[in-house]
Amino acid sequence: MNWIVLKKLYEVYKNGITESNKTMLEDPQIQYLLESTKELRDSGAYIKIGDDTFKQYYEKRHLKNFEEYDAFLIRNQFKKPQTRFQENDIKILMGIEEGMTTGRLKEIREQIIEAEETVRGVSKMFFKNEKHLEKSVPLLKAVKKLLNISELANDKDQQYKYVLECEEPCCIVICENLDFLKRPSKPRKYNIELWYVGGKNVAKLDYVDTRNLPIYYSGDWDYDGLFIIYKLVKEKIPKIQLLYPDGKPLSIDKSEHKSHWRKNMDFQLFNHKEKALIQRLENENEWIMEEANDLVTMLGM
């Protein structure tokens, strides 16, 4: 749902009715409530409560979230008549705000500025899609405001890596996504140095020095993470080792994941155990999200 639909659904909850519009009617979840559960009713110009269970459903699934989104948008002066942020984007923006408030994102912000990071680079960090911020000027402005960064470069080629340093590193882990770097206490407790290089943007690895430390790769266990990104990293750093995940698999379809397994995959980079897991995930049409894993457990610490 986008913010327009979220507001409309709240109006139905509070008032029992709201004016219908195309955006609301085209939303899959609204369609489900209208056509499948009948908890909403389309009367032409208006959407109304159609079933007594609607309020219970709304209070359980949406009310608390809506109130938090609304307070966040007001607090940051993002709540405007033209605001159309998607719900997931609002959640990510709230995470950025929380990270800046607690200081978890302080080092990452400093490195973004020092590296003169690109729009696509920041988009990949937080939204896992390098083009996401290019599609929405208001969303890009919101990210820059929350990070307290005035400008981001527009060139597409990142040449910097982001490092979570520790006092006496015992190993290096290259992360496909930014999530582990946003939670620094555990890696530092176990002296794990983390690198984030921006997914597929691995050209900068031509110039890195691993200081003879053991180096590992942590990423999503999906087609892109293993057969594209890990392969690219392995070509740059042949001695790198793949970390075996301990996270719970997710349905690719139910989680609306975009990276799908393919036929005739080349397994030469993977040992027997890794290949067996990949084939099991492929058979079940599942994947494992990087942040669902425990970094320390994967490293056997």
Secondary structure layout:
Layout: H1 3-15, E1 17-19, H2 22-26, H3 28-35, E2 40-42, E3 46-49, H4 54-61, H5 63-75, H6 87-102, H7 106-114, H8 119-127, H9 137-147, E4 162-164, E5 171-175, H10 185-189, E6 192-196, E7 215-218, H11 223-236, E8 241-242, E9 250-251, H12 272-284, E10 286-287, H13 295-298
Parallel strand pairs: 5-6, 5-7, 7-8
Antiparallel strand pairs: 1-3, 2-3, 4-6, 9-10
Helix pairs in contact: 6-9
Give a written overview of the molecule.
The chain is an alpha/beta fold. It folds into three domains: 3-75, no CATH class; 101-147, no CATH class; 162-298, Dna Topoisomerase Vi A Subunit, Chain: A, domain 2 (3-Layer(aba) Sandwich). Helices cover 43% and strands 11% of the residues. The protein is built from 13 helices and ten strands. The chain has helices at 3-15, 22-26, 28-35, 54-61, 63-75, 87-102, 106-114, 119-127, 137-147, 185-189, 223-236, 272-284, 295-298; strands spanning 17-19, 40-42, 46-49, 162-164, 171-175, 192-196, 215-218, 241-242, 250-251, 286-287. The strands form three sheets. It has a five-stranded mixed β-sheet with strand order 4-6-5-7-8. Helix 10 (185-189) links the parallel strand 5 and strand 6. Helix 6 packs parallel to helix 9 (137-147). The two termini are 41 Å apart. The model has no long low-confidence stretch (mean pLDDT 92).
